[in-house]
Each structure stands twice: as structure tokens, then as C-alpha cells.
Amino acid sequence: MGQPRKSVGAGRPGRDWRAVVVAAGLAVTSGCGIVGSNSPTDGSLGELSVSSPRFRDEAPLPADYSCAGKEGNPPLRWSGVAQKLTKSIALVVDANNAQGAAEVHWVVFNIDPLTTELAQNSVPRGAVQGMTSSGKVGYSPPCRRDDTYRFSVYALDETLDLKKGAALRETLEHIAQHTIARGRLSASHIE
């Protein structure tokens, strides 16, 4: 349980995960999936390995971490961060349902680049939380049982000059512009 795996889709030609995150966020916040011209869309990204001691990639998300539970966010671990290049880490938790609608459940940024794990129901010291699709700041537990939930970790080439509660669209755009490596752990549905 919780064995490290490479991110799903890593290395696929023509697939830029920065653009996917921004497109999902833009679709949620503005109804528009167009990525801005300042967003990098070419070049290769490094790969991070993301895991959890509570569930495996493509396995169900334990109900304790959903709106039916009381545990808050699940614990996560990541590795593969290029220490010399990375200035901060960001985490985005989002969902995608069968109809293609995206919903962002959590955004945390400016995580210290030496951090390699996130404890259950916690935010690393010094990290900043942005707004979610629901307008809440902090972890917004998922509720739709059949959606796929994605826990994406991004290595960034700078700390973001954004405040707590920053607008979702703005935060996702900044993450996309500064991503140098990424990894993902997906939960196929809620237990």
C-alpha cells in the first residue's frame, strides 16, 4: 500500500500537464479552457513520484478523506524534486467526472522545496492555501463517489507572490507558468 509510482501519463508526447491544470482551473472558474499566452506549453518536464500510505494510484480514495469522513486531507509523499532548481512545491487536488467537468478541491503553494511529505489533515509550515472551486480556502473534501480524484504535486522554479485565499484562476496560472516537474496520484473513486 502506498508504493511510489510514476505519475500517470508522464512522458506522453504532446501532453503538457501544466496546460491541463490551467485548463481545468480556467474551465471551473471562467467556463473557458484557453491557456494564456504566458503559459509555457513546450519543453520537457521532470517527473515526480507521488504516493500515499492510505491508498494506491488508481485505487479508491478512502471515505475518511471525503465529505462523509472526518480526517481532512490524506497523507501524501513525493520524491524526485531537483533540489538545485526547485524554489517551492505546489499541490492541486482536483476531480474530473464522466462529463468532463473539473472541480478543484485544494490548492497549496509555497511549500518548502525540502518537504517530501504532507501529513494527514495538515498544511506544511509556511505554505499558503488558495481558493478552491467552491470558494473555500483549504481542503474541500470530495463528495461525488464516482469521480476520479487527482493529487498533483508540482516543483516550481520560484515561490509564488500570492496571498492566502488567492483566486483559483490566478493561482493555477502562476503554478503553470513556473512548473519544472510534476507527478500525480489518482483515486479512481471514493470507497
TrEMBL record:
Transmembrane segments: none annotated. PROSITE patterns: PROKAR_LIPOPROTEIN. Belongs to the UPF0098 family. This is YbhB/YbcL family Raf kinase inhibitor-like protein. Pfam families: PBP (PF01161).
